[in-house]
Amino acid sequence: MRWGVIGTGNMGGILIDAWMNSNVMEEKDLFITNRSIQKAYQYKESYPRIQVCEQVDQLVKEVDIIYICVKPLEIYPLLTEIGPYLNKDQCIVSITSPFSVERLESLVPCQVARMIPSITNRALAGITLTTFGERVTKEMQGYLTQSSRLYSKPVSIENNVTRVSSDIVSCGPAFFGYLAEQFIKAASEETEISKETATILTEEMFIGFGKLLADGHFTLTELIEKVCVKGGVTGEGIGSMEQDIGKLFHHLFQHTHNKYNEDIEKIGAQLTN
């Protein structure tokens, strides 16, 4: 199978690195393109045998699987451009949540899947959220699923939980990274620890925290119970969080879903104009 990537920005680039480092395919079987073509050529410095296509139609004609890694509102114009070059045996894979597989299937003659990645895939870890269209063959579904297992854990999801699943899997590292930064900032402002030392300690804590979960030593609830000794310092900290955190995460999900619905409305307007 030959794979193609249209859009070598943040997530497209993460996928390229994940695939190359997990041997999903040989370098020569990956074709990439980007609106700013120099961003695509940069990947040849690390992976010399990758094929860079300066025109998007050139890429479409060469590959079996086409990963679309552009912004949601850029997808419809892109599909309009490449539509004449698609055939029923090819498979388009979208990595963005607002474009449902049903809507994608209505616009192209080929197979359609949605596979939402995470930045954690760069470490050959984390989740890939999968949804397959009705035209996807069992062989293609199996191939894509098995390939994603080389760098992640594929999890099939329904459309009604796409946004919240993506919030957890794809946005979660940024959300908890931001919380970690605030944790470090408060530590350095409230005590004599330097920001640099607090950062090192926090990063190492996260690494160990993840390993505890990955190795199955504790669940999240068990981990809290083990550390939070009754009447101890951790309990005081948890009590403060219970008091101050309020509806923070409720508001977070409300805002992400408002943006999601806004993007869906804009996509719908594109299709009716």
TrEMBL record:
Annotated Pyrroline-5-carboxylate reductase catalytic N-terminal domain residues: 4-97
Domain Pyrroline-5-carboxylate reductase dimerisation: 164-262
Keywords: NADP
Any one GO BP annotation for this protein: L-proline biosynthetic process
Cross-referenced InterPro entries: 6-PGluconate_DH-like_C_sf, NAD(P)-bd_dom_sf, P5C_Rdtase_cat_N, P5CR-like_CS, P5CR_dimer, Pyrroline-COOH_reductase
Coiled-coil regions listed in the entry: none
Residues annotated as binding NADP(+): I6, G7, T8, G9, N10, M11
GO molecular function: pyrroline-5-carboxylate reductase activity
Family: Belongs to the pyrroline-5-carboxylate reductase family.
Protein name: Late competence protein ComER
Species this chain originates from: Terrihalobacillus insolitus
